[in-house]
Amino acid sequence: MLERYEQNGLILYRSPLLHTIGVPHAFTTRYGGVSSPPFASLNLGTVGGSAIQDPNENLRENYRRLHAAIGCGQREHCGVRQVHGSTVRIALRGKPFENGVAADALLSNDPSRTVGIKYADCVPILLANDDGTAVAAVHAGWRGILAGVLPRAVTELRNFTTGSPRLLAAVGPCISTDAFEVGPEVVAGFVKHFGSAAPIHKKGDKPHVDLRQAVLLQLQTHGISRENIDLTDRCTFASSDEFFSHRRDGMLTGRMAAVIGCKDRT
Q: Cys-Cys crosslink for 224: which of 6, 18, 219, 233, Cβ 3.0 to 4.6 Å?
């Protein structure tokens, strides 16, 4: 289970599995930043298609605070433009990386960098091999889950090392089953993808999907055992004091981030 803690005025969540192997990382909340409403306060993303944006200087300061809180104050941050697809990008050690390219997963083996994704209901997943030399951040909404972004990221991460390395995974706060009512096209997609194991539940006559369970199924199907996965029961929709939520608040709201870096080799 993820652990909630405070560092330098920020409220964060961390994975005991990743923390034990010395991999700096965090799932953020909305606490501890400098942004004003409707982005208050630790906003870490922009709002696509909106004329109202949190100033860039706020975002830079919020990322500076986050990096300082997880011990990565001198590292370069790498991020992508998320499109709810299956593309995986890689920030290789010693190679240039273009921030803002379209993708929903970002891998790295560079200890001078962090990689991260933004979220406000979708499932954030952080991955690492068991010696902390390769890491990944994955953004998985329902479209990304069906597109297979998480299995692709797991496969790519294994390619960084020889043999069959043990991978660790941490699944962060996201929208809960109770809050995620879906239409028939989403139900059909999950049944096609997962078959009889599709995590679909009924509340009254309305179908709901358990995104967290879908991600757990994909991780286990692709070789990550349950004891190597940290979860949380925190719901972004239900906890308005702690998390931003696109479904609850609409487009004009902030974004949390899931950030991770390779183990420091110095």
A: 219
